[in-house]
Amino acid sequence: MLRKVRQIAASFVIMLGFTQLYSFSSAAYGYFMSDSGDYRFVWNYWIIGLFAVLLLIGGAMMIQNDRFRLHVAIILLAFTAFQAFSVYFYQIKTLLDKTEDLKGPFNYTNLILAVISLCLFFLFLLSKKRDESLLETREQGWKTKWLISSVVFSISGAGLAIFLSAMIIKHFQNPKVSDVYIFTNDFDAAFAIFSAILLLLIAFSSLKKGSYFMAGISMGIGFLYLMNYLWFEQWMTFSIQNGYEIAKNENRLFGIQFVIGVVAFLSGILIFIGKKEKKY
Question: Within the chain, which residues score under 50 in pLDDT?
Answer without folding.
Answer: 134, 280
